[in-house]
Amino acid sequence: MFTSGGDSPGMNACIRSVVRTGLYRGLDVYGIMYGYDGMIEGTIKKMASHSVSNIIQRGGTILKSARSEAFMTKEGRQKAYAELTKLGIEGLVAIGGDGTFTGAKVFFEEYGIPTVGCPGTIDNDIYGTDYTIGFDTAVNTALEAIDKIRDTAAAHDRIFFIEVMGRDSGYIGIECGIGGGAELVMVPETRTKIEDVVKSLKGLRKTKTSSIIIVAEGLDCGDAAQIMERVKASFKDEEKEFKVTTLGHIQRGGNPTAKDRLLGSRMGMAAVEGLLAGESNCMAGVMNDHVVYTPFADCITKEKPLKSDYLRLQEILSI
Amino acid sequence: MFTSGGDSPGMNACIRSVVRTGLYRGLDVYGIMYGYDGMIEGTIKKMASHSVSNIIQRGGTILKSARSEAFMTKEGRQKAYAELTKLGIEGLVAIGGDGTFTGAKVFFEEYGIPTVGCPGTIDNDIYGTDYTIGFDTAVNTALEAIDKIRDTAAAHDRIFFIEVMGRDSGYIGIECGIGGGAELVMVPETRTKIEDVVKSLKGLRKTKTSSIIIVAEGLDCGDAAQIMERVKASFKDEEKEFKVTTLGHIQRGGNPTAKDRLLGSRMGMAAVEGLLAGESNCMAGVMNDHVVYTPFADCITKEKPLKSDYLRLQEILSI
Amino acid sequence: MFTSGGDSPGMNACIRSVVRTGLYRGLDVYGIMYGYDGMIEGTIKKMASHSVSNIIQRGGTILKSARSEAFMTKEGRQKAYAELTKLGIEGLVAIGGDGTFTGAKVFFEEYGIPTVGCPGTIDNDIYGTDYTIGFDTAVNTALEAIDKIRDTAAAHDRIFFIEVMGRDSGYIGIECGIGGGAELVMVPETRTKIEDVVKSLKGLRKTKTSSIIIVAEGLDCGDAAQIMERVKASFKDEEKEFKVTTLGHIQRGGNPTAKDRLLGSRMGMAAVEGLLAGESNCMAGVMNDHVVYTPFADCITKEKPLKSDYLRLQEILSI
Amino acid sequence: MFTSGGDSPGMNACIRSVVRTGLYRGLDVYGIMYGYDGMIEGTIKKMASHSVSNIIQRGGTILKSARSEAFMTKEGRQKAYAELTKLGIEGLVAIGGDGTFTGAKVFFEEYGIPTVGCPGTIDNDIYGTDYTIGFDTAVNTALEAIDKIRDTAAAHDRIFFIEVMGRDSGYIGIECGIGGGAELVMVPETRTKIEDVVKSLKGLRKTKTSSIIIVAEGLDCGDAAQIMERVKASFKDEEKEFKVTTLGHIQRGGNPTAKDRLLGSRMGMAAVEGLLAGESNCMAGVMNDHVVYTPFADCITKEKPLKSDYLRLQEILSI
Fold first, then answer.
1. CATH-assigned architecture of domain C138-252
2. Which residue of C has its CA nearest to D307?
3. Hey, where are the domains in chain A?
4. Which residues contact C206 (CB under 8 A, 6 or more apart)?
5. Number of C-beta neighbours around residue D157 at 10 A
6. Is the CB of D262 less than 8 angstroms away from the CB of C21?
7. Phi, psi (deg, nearest 5) at residue C160
8. Does B298 touch chain C (CB under 8 A)?
9. CATH topology of domain D136-253
């Protein structure tokens, strides 16, 4: 078992669940440190029940994580396979996102070690599961920050552009927009133009004294600071104050929420029980509250669309 | 629109959504203060968009809530109907739990004012929705408290009995048990006996130095303090320290989580759009992430069973 | 170095500081587990800089704590001295409260090992320091809980009696009262009578719809539940709802606040530097923001009075 | 009474205290909206006890704040005086920072209305008080963010540069550095050079896998992003990952901590009682836990040096 790619809150709950479900089912369980790099280097340790005591509530990952370049080479993977064989490891649980599963798929296809993935990323951008481990915590962390910013926005009648994470996906953005009571949300899926933002803000000015605009990272029209400057240029002769805040890495850390502890725990159990039941080359996920297994190939290539009713809800609530 | 029964975090998000969806759809929206009592007394005020500004992040309910005895009488309901008629109110949104819907059902059957309910209670004990508004916040609040208690439990190698809310339902208990990494969970559905608790704790003693037992309120075998005393009696000659904490009303308050703000917002919109589409005498809910409407009669009488795989998950993870 | 008595948030910051200041000054540093019991049993381990990495933000104590009966006997202390001598330990840092220092004083007088104490208790009841490590966190934890309860109190127009910790001292109570905007505070120092509470509440009824009364534990007139019952009896014919909540052990745990991390860090350094400078049989403390050393004898016997201007402030603000 | 300049958590506690102390002493109390601008425009409202109910726990300021250019002109101040005279206002309480007091001083010298200030700013950069209202909350907010970032820093063995607020003062920086267990702190007072940072990090690499560097805003050597780039350039051939996060405006908002609620409450009372006792043209502050009044002239011009023992403490603890 290992964690790879960006860490996310709830990964420790998942690790704990893999260990304890494995032990409960009579298996030996090993933890691989530093993702694929540790697999290659052989930094692998046997896990006992108490190895995962008192970690369910902690952010980060006790197995540490890394992005591995060595694993992208044939030699790297061969070395990794040798290390696993040395310890008699017969199945793998890979906790991470797209990149993690891409590596796992190649490795499985080359060496045939049964592998099940668990969706660990804050971005909620993985096909095959309604939610990823860490997403709920990231949204709640962002919302707490937005609540604080709203205090100061309201006190000064300011317009705040707040940049949240999400890579190619607008999930964090739209949930922060609805939950944060934002006046506007700019996510990749909405393709909002600068002129639309200006128009909206000019319309809102009659009823609202302060405004919050949620901006997802990685938009075509720039980052939050660039967007703010362009919007501000259209308000030149007016006295509105514009401010920008980029929430950044705080969204990755912190104690996991109830939902992420539960999801991490469920996914860890599902991965182990899946392996025992013959599942492989696939990811465990939760859809409509049921555990499902989706081939890595689909997880990597298929897109998970944003819920259109969320966009509509956000629009109505911002009047 | 009104809130009734015990308040829950996310009710304000729901109120805001009812107001803004109503206005968006061209309706006049009124807020009834103090639940059914306010309907009888006529403490009803017209709501504008800004009436619900800056409340989505707040616990409690700006409409205040109460349990009404007067509404249980024919005279009370007649007076309420008169007040509603006076203002030309043609539809009702009732935010609350079982008791609220029982009153709404009777009132609808007597006077025929179209009524849709929103599930607002921390207990998650209502048939017709996967989650109720406030449940996620209550679990997260309880978990934060449990995390704190775990600090002191671990520092002293103590056994802690922690009582959580939930009335007749074990939902809060089981999610706190899994998320809090509890060694044991006692909820109405498990019918755990004192001797089972003693046996489990004696078994765990070999591997664990401190333990947390989550106790739902309202068990047949007593409250957390009584259970602790009885368990303690079986450990008489040993040196373990037993402690009890009842989390109490902190679980009802606090800023709503992302999930509860989103759920409250969705339910408020669903109630208004349901009324406009001809739904009545029913509750809006979310099942498998879709909005559904369930007759009040079913919400009140049918039972929502605890998920059996959660119980199994908790058991495996506590080894 | 060891922690003893009830644990408090910031103890880990203090432990970290003792270790790193000691190493910085070229000393060998040992951590004694489980307080005096561990000293007797010899569960003592050498500490490196990384032994205390990533703990400054955690509640509890990594050295664990216990109340020791064995240390109250001459034999126990003799055994403890033997264990310390075996390792060549030439100075002690005792982190805890009254009971800890009483033991340290006796031990010093019998065996002469230089000892400096650090004030670690949430109660802030120790003479010789303006604040104790853990007090600020406990007050903030209690306040967050009170804020949540206020949500539900306001929603239902209820009167809430909230019991906070503090043993014989009203410090937690009065700071919670002022910070929580309480209508009334009952602490040992005010000797408030039930009839005064009734009178106040009847007076407040004209202007306030909900009320919060902070009750310190250990009052002569009973615990919060008993006081509530007696007050309620005087309101018999009225419709006010009375509720009670006992915050309990959540006040002991949780991540320490900035103040407690800073205070713990300062006290740890002060203890080590005090020992090196020849201080002994005394406690390091902070008075008027300066480090001072006070003989254990004074810390144990002298009383720290509540600030009278805080009581006056609370009274004025509750109008 | 009014708030001016940047808002800070605890301002509402201060406003509440001014209102209630004033009423308690038999005065009429008015709240001026939007700082000096509102004074000029006459947006002033009479305050009752319930006007400040349920605000002690909220960030921001219910009186709103602004920086006024009009008040810098003679005409503006004349108009303001006229508005105050119209209402018979005989004394002023000015809550804010340097800029606020500069305006208040000029206004007092021109028109003679007795004025007392309360130190409301998160930066803790005002002479005449040990702490300013909002500072403790800002540090705690920053620390919570740093704790989250540490989770992800530790999971990936990264070096994080975190920029905190503080304008010309290193108070927020140094307290975040100690409390956050940072490896290095760069504040205006330390004049740290890039080469020192590089040297420190190279030294630390042997013992630490991840590192946190706290960077105060407004340093001569650039902002956190610029500093990171320059440091990174010296590590070119190595594999360390460098990241930067700017905490930004979240530090201004949020529910005030216990300390800031208490300090705000004390300062509000001190301002009103100071006015009644004949104090004027000065700021109320707390030094060594006693209320003191310092002439505006000193508050504005004198410097408050950083505590040198904090710098030493931080250095020792980062080994």
1. 3-Layer(aba) Sandwich (3.40)
2. C289
3. 2-134+256-301, 137-253
4. none
5. 17
6. no
7. -110, 130
8. no
9. Rossmann fold (3.40.50)
Question: C67 CB contacts (<8 Å, ≥6 apart)?
Answer: C4, C5, C35, C99
Residue D249 contacts A where some CB pair is shorter than 8 Å:
yes
- Report the sign of the C-alpha dihedral through residues C126, C131, C132, C136, in that order: positive
Return the structure tokens found at C239. 């419709």
Residue of C nearest to B33 (CA): C155
* Torsional sign, CA B112, B118, B123, B129: positive
Q: Measured between CA atoms, how close is A82 to chain B, in angstroms?
A: 31
Q: Which one, of A254, C142, C155, lies nearest residue B9 by Cα?
A: C155
C-alpha A232: how far from chain center: 32
With an 8 Å Cβ cutoff, is C145 touching chain D? Answer: no
ipTM rounded to 2 decimals: 0.94
Q: Chain D partners of A58 at a C-beta cutoff of 8 Å?
A: 151
Largest CA distance in chain D: 72
Is the pLDDT confidence value at A225 over 80? yes
Beta strands (DSSP E) in D229-299 are: 241-246, 282-287, 290-295
The active-site residue out of A7, A28, A37, A123 is: A123
Whether B304 and chain A come into contact, CB under 8 Å, resolves to no
pLDDT confidence of residue D299 = 97
Min distance B247 CA to chain A CA atoms (Å)? 16
**Distance of residue D250 Cα from the nearest chain A Cα, in angstroms:** 5
Nearest CA in chain A to D69: A239
Into which CATH architecture does domain A2-134+256-301 fall? 3-Layer(aba) Sandwich (3.40)
Q: Which two tokens stand for residue D231?
A: 């440091």
Q: Could you tell me the two tokens for B193?
A: 């006996």
Residue D176 CA to residue D247 CA, distance in Å, equals: 12
Element (H, E) at B143: helix B135-156
Structure tokens at B131: 């989650």
Cα A195 from Cα A174, distance rounded (Å): 20
Binding site of D for ATP, by residue number, is 6, 67-68, 97-100
CA dihedral sign of residues B175, B176, B178, B180: positive
Q: How many CB pairs under 8 A join C and D?
A: 116
**B286, B128 Cβ separation under 8 angstroms:** no
In CATH terms, are D2-134+256-301 and D136-253 the same topology?
yes
C152 and B59 within 8 Å at the Cβ level: the answer is: yes
* Residues D83/D44, Cβ–Cβ less than 8 Å: yes
CA dihedral (A153, A154, A158, A162) positive or negative: positive
Topology, domain A137-253: Rossmann fold (3.40.50)
Among C138, C174, C152, C120, CA closest to C247: C138
CA dist B39 and B18 (Å) reads: 17
The pLDDT tens digits for A241-283 are 899 999 999 999 999 999 999 999 999 999 999 999 999 999 9
Within A87-219, residue ranges assigned H as helices are: 98-111, 135-156, 171-179, 194-204
Residue A101: the pLDDT is: 96
Give the span between the Cα atoms of D160 and D152, in whole angstroms.
10
DSSP C160: E
- First-to-last CA distance in chain C? 48
Residue C315 C-alpha, separation from nearest chain D C-alpha, in angstroms: 10
Chain C residues in contact with D311 (beta carbon < 8 A):
none
* pLDDT means over runs of 10, chain D (319 residues): 86 97 95 94 94 93 90 96 95 95 96 96 96 98 95 88 92 96 93 90 81 93 93 79 92 95 97 97 95 97 91 91
Q: Distances from the Cα of C307 to the Cαs of B294, C130, C302, C304, in angstroms? A: 59, 11, 15, 9
Residue A71 has pLDDT above 80, yes or no: yes
Choose the closest CB to A243 out of D65, D150, D249.
D249
3 state SS of B151: helix
